[in-house]
Amino acid sequence: NIYIKSTIMRNTIYRYFFVEFISLFALILISTCVIVWIVQAVNYLDFVTEDGHAFSVYFTYSVLNIPKVIGRLIPLVFLISLLTTILQFEKNNELLVFWTSGLNKIRLVNFVFIISILITLFQLLLSLSISPSSLNFARSILKSSNITLFPSLVKEKKFNDTVKGLTVFVEKKKPNGEMLNVFLRDDTSSNAKSRTIIAKKGYIITKGVMPFVKVGVLSEQNFLVLFDGVIQTEKINNKINFLKFYKTEINLASFESKTTTYPKIQENNTLSLLNCIKPFLDEGKTTLSEHQCRARIDDIKSELNRRFGMPLYIPIISIIICYLLSSRKESKYYFSQKYIVFITAFTILVFAEIMVRYSGNSALGTIIYYSLPPLLILLNYLNLIRIFKFENLDQ
After folding, report:
1. pLDDT tens digit string along 327-342?
2. With contact defined as beta carbons under 8 Å apart, do 141 and 58 qualify?
3. How far apart are the C-alpha atoms of 354 and 368, rounded to whole Å?
4. How far apart are alpha carbons 240 and 194 in whole angstroms?
């Protein structure tokens, strides 16, 4: 009966500790994520103000970047949450209740370590799968997006080069959207060096087209309609052709914005990056070309080390924070010890962040980066056992 009661009490303590920690962890993570996301979303406004994408594209792209933000914040938020939880328990004398009820300190250390493993697995899931997929999907949305805000980006008496390969000059723009004395230069044609169009007037209209005939989904696209002008085409053989027209239409959907549409390294899935450094999986699984793999091999290794290695530093933080269990608030060293513990844990995170940036440049850096977590965990865990072994339960 005593053993059963002791087990029930321990489980109750563990459950209480876990609920308090995870509640604080979720609160801090969500709060900081919202702040960082808002700051980041402001930077993405260039997609609308300069590149002409719709607000829906901008909002969707911003939301899809949230998993990346969460993944970057987890280690620091874990440090702050665990530190705050233990300090709060100590302040309310709840730790003293734990010790006097018979809970061994090293058991609580083990429980905290288990929590850190769960957080580590969560971050691994984010960094290896969810975040790259989300970022890649966000990039694909930009790539397939039409330049819906092009009409509002065209300013009178100013050369507008929002669209890649297309420069537009309008002498005057009326309130009804009509443009007078339009000059347009198109450098995107594959059959000519360039194409210059001069027209007396023009306007932009929106039409519904059917790009997905099978599913019957209508998509609106912008067309530039020009009147009374001439088209000057410079051929590859340096010949110049002139063509007068009364009316012509240019589909703006055929042009791309200046937004980067090819996936960045962090937006590629993990298997694609692994195939770049060692093609031991099926051929053709990587989304990067052979040239891209060779040219950016160091960056790819660093990205893989970030995805696999950074989560491994979370358990170290849990062990370091557990040094606070060996002190009491009445101790004259308690005030300074909590700052020493925080600075030590924070320094480890900063060191890990620095190391991951240079780990792709050398094999030695990679070895140090991956060998440090298990080594520090083992040494500090053994040291905690030594410290707690000689303490009384009410300490």
Report:
1. 665 566 666 888 899 9
2. no
3. 12
4. 10
